[in-house]
Write a structure and sequence with these properties.
single chain; about 240 residues; alpha/beta; seven-stranded mixed β-sheet; four-stranded antiparallel β-sheet; 7 helices; 16 strands; about 30% helix; globular; binds ribulose-5-phosphate; NagB/RpiA_transferase-like; ribose-5-phosphate isomerase activity; Ribose-5-phosphate isomerase A; isomerase
């Protein structure tokens, strides 16, 4: 599976491969979304097919559900699973406290629900996602379509009152149309540069009417597995 990969895919692949070593027979596993998580789903499928590993996977997006079925993983819903042993997912940024920004792929709502319902969350990544302070990556905020422009204005007003650096925001687009999440919602991306107090920002954003969930994952991630382009893997 690993031959002829580009350096960045090698990093993602080795992180994914190491992380699936933490999956044991009988586990219920949350399956993240994104290009790194897709490597994890393929690696897990390989263990299911080759070792007869019996697991149930709870996908965090329609994309991941489709891939999981293709590679032979038994897919169940979160309501069937109720609680999960482990979730493995990618991230857009992580800091030294293992707080994250997620949602670059627009799936952070399901990802946060699934990760929170898990005994353990492991993030798989390449080193480029490690930051001193969260915020260089645009922070996604999922809003319902009704009155989204009002929600966006309220978000901007809130950011101004918090004196957060950089307060521009933009509706995420998919070509000419607004991006639509698996839940039928839109995403407002916040360009903040640096988030001083991620816990406070997350709580405040989620209180704005129309906001469904933001992409800050605070105290949810337990471990980060970093894959390097030369094939080395670090676990922190
Ligand atoms: C999707 C996510 C992804 O995990 C995140 O965007 C990282 O993706 P990739 O592994 O493709 O860089 O949060 O909502």
């Amino acid at each position: 599976m690993s031959s002829n990969l580009s350096p960045i895919d090698t990093a993602k692949f080795v992180a994914a491969k190491r992380a699936v070593d933490f999956v044991e027979d009988g586990m219920r596993v949350g399956l993240g979304t994104g290009s790194t998580a897709a490597w994890m789903v393929r690696c897990l499928g390989e263990r299911v097919r080759e070792e007869g590993l019996r697991i149930a996977g709870v996908p965090t997006s329609t994309r991941t559900a489709e891939l999981a079925r293709q590679v032979g993983i038994r897919v169940i819903s979160l309501d069937e699973a109720r609680w999960l042993d482990l979730t493995i997912d990618g991230a857009d940024e992580f800091d030294m406290d293992l707080n994250l920004i997620k949602g670059g792929g627009g799936a952070h709502l399901q990802e946060k629900i699934v990760a929170t319902a898990s005994d353990q969350m492991i993030v798989i990544t390449d080193p480029s996602k490690q930051v001193e302070h969260l915020g260089s990556f645009p922070l996604p905020v999922e809003v319902i379509p009704f009155g989204w422009q009002t929600s966006k204005a309220l978000i901007e007003e809130t950011l101004a009152s918090l004196e957060v650096l950089g307060q521009t925001s933009a509706l995420r687009m998919n070509g000419e149309a607004p991006f639509v999440t698996d839940e039928g919602n839109h995403i407002i991306d916040l360009y903040l540069q640096r988030i001083g107090n991620p816990r406070q920002l997350s709580m405040v954003l989620n209180q704005i009417p129309g906001v469904v969930e933001n992409g800050l994952f605070i105290d949810i991630c337990d471990k980060v597995v970093i894959g390097h382009q030369d094939g080395r893997v670090e676990v922190i």
